[in-house]
Amino acid sequence: MTSLLTLLTAVGAQLRDRLRELRDDPERGSLSVEQVIITVALIGIAVALVAVIANAVTSRSGQIQ
Fold first, then answer.
1. Per residue in 18-29, is it b (16+ CB within 10 Å) or e — as a string?
2. pLDDT value for 26
3. Are 28 and 22 in contact (CB under 8 A)?
4. Domain of 58?
5. Nearest Cα to 28, choosing from 16, 40, 19?
6. 35 plus 49 within the same structural domain
7. Do 14 and 37 belong together in one domain?
8. Closest by alpha carbon to 20, among 9, 12, 8?
């Protein structure tokens, strides 16, 4: 039981230190509007590509004998 308490104390201390570092630099890891727009566009392109490929496979599967 003592080793578990020691482990939890150490993990808690590490989390406190990490949160303190993140509060000191609030803009670290923030996304810009451009990055969000580019990401949404890439996801849209990927979804469209999957739809086109699925449609092509479905239409060609009828031709297999």
1. eeeeeeeeeeee
2. 64
3. yes
4. 31-65
5. 19
6. yes
7. no
8. 12
Specify the residue for token string 């479905």. Answer: 58
Residue that wins the pLDDT comparison between 49 and 18: 49
Contact 56, 62 (CB under 8 A): no
Do 36 and 20 share a domain, yes or no? no
Could you give the number of structural domains in the chain?
2
Pair 35, 55 in one domain:
yes
Per DSSP, 32 falls in state: P
> What is the token pair recorded at 55?
């449609």
Same-domain status, 15 and 36? no
pLDDT per residue as tens digits for the range 10-43: 988 898 888 888 777 766 666 778 888 999 999 9
